Amino acid sequence: xxxxxxxxxxxxxxxxxxxxxxxxxxxxxxxxxxxxxxxxxxxxxxxxxxxxxxxxxxxxxxxxxxxxxxxxxxxxxxxxxxxxxxxxxxxxxxxxxxxxxxxxxxxxxxxxxxxxxxxxxxxxxxxxxxxxxxxxxxxxxxxxxxxxxxxxxxxxxxxxxxxxxxxxxxxxxxxxxxxxxxxxxxxxxxxxxxxxxxxxxxxxxxxxxxxxxxxxxxxxxxxxxxxxxxxxxxxxxxxxxxxxxxxxxxxxxxxx
Length: 256
Fold this sequence. Notes:
Blueprint: H1 2-19, E1 32-43, E2 46-47, E3 57-58, E4 64-81, E5 86-88, E6 93-97, E7 105-112, E8 114-123, H2 127-130, E9 146-147, E10 152-161, E11 171-177, E12 187-199, E13 206-212, E14 230-232, H3 235-247, E15 249-255
Parallel strand pairs: 1-13, 11-14
Antiparallel strand pairs: 1-2, 1-7, 3-4, 4-5, 4-6, 4-8, 4-10, 8-12, 9-10, 10-11, 13-15
C-alpha cells in the first residue's frame, strides 16, 4: 500500500512539474522592424526654399509668393499588408518643419515583419489628441503648432508673402486646423506604394515622401491671394484642407 501511495505521489509531482512553463522555451515574440521616411518639400515641382525671391514660386492662380514657414503634422500611420490587412502603428505622430532639417528624416518603428503594399495616415492630429489639451514630444505647444486660445492643433501651417495679398505687409497666413463640424479639417491620405515595402528585423528600408506646398492653393478651389490670404480655422481652412487632401503628399520611392 505504501508503495502504491509513493508511486501516486511521484506521478502527481511529475504532472505538476511538466505543467510548469519551460523558461528555456518561451513563446517567440513577434518580430518588428523600422522604415525610414525621407520628406522632400516642394512647391509645385520645385524644391522648396524658405525666404527665397518672390519670383521663384507661383500658385495655381499665377500669384507670385515667397514662403517663410511650412510645417505639418502626420499621425495615426497604418500600413496595408499584401493580404489587405491594415496594420496600425501605435503612437505614430510626426511633425515636419521645413526650417529644421532634422525633421526631414523620420522613422516609423514597431512595424510587424511582413510585406506591405500601401500606406494611410491622418493629415494633422486626430480628434482624440486634438482635444486632450497641450501635450509633450512633437505635440508640445513649444513647437508652434498649438492654438492656446482654441485648445487645438494647427495641422498644416504655411506663412509667407505675396504682392497680390491685401493683408498687412502683403502677408500670407494659412494656419489650417479644426476638428469639429462644420469646420473639421482632419483629412486622410492613402496611397498604394510604388513597390512592395519589405519589413524585416535588422534591416532599414526607406520611403521618399514628397510634400507639395502648392497643393494648398489648388484642387477643388483655386486660391486667389487677393481674396484669400489669411485663415486660422473656420470655413476658409476647410477650403484649403479640401484642396490638399489629395495633392499634399505622394510617396515616390521605396528602397528595401
